[in-house]
Amino acid sequence: MKQSILFVCFICSLCLFSACSVFRPAQGEMPPMTDAATLWQYITVTNPYTEWRLTDETEGIKEADPPHGPLVRVYPNRIARVSEYTANEGAIIVMENYDKDGTTLLTIDLMQKRNNYAPSAGNWYWASYEANGTVIKEGKVKQCVECHVSMAFDDYTFIHKW
Description:
Elements lengths: L1 H22 L12 H11 L15 E2 L7 E6 L1 H5 L9 E7 L6 E9 L10 E7 L4 E5 L2 H7 L14
Antiparallel strand pairs: 1-2, 2-3, 3-4, 4-5, 5-6
């Protein structure tokens, strides 16, 4: 009898584990949670952001406000796309900043969601790059936090603004 109960518990645990693994939403590969240089390598070589599927909200070039370029193009990774209004850990949003002509790439900005990274700023990590990938700033960037706090109700992002 005791062996039967243990066997049934084992089978139930195995089924529960399998169900959680099978039915968990596929979010894609978890990106590195390190520094801006490693993330640049990830978004340009390992998993090129320009190949990420866009959403209706991120399709095309959009008008933007400083400190970003007058025109921007936004790329959410798979984890960001499948997240609802609160991004899951590993979500990345890349923003290309263009001059008013829309053809000159000025800088590239990145936001990455990290668990317990910066609770007062939605747990986002920020990085800014020159167009060639040189890191301008990274981490809990004061200028980014001060602006994005106005969008705390939308997980500190402007992605649904457009």
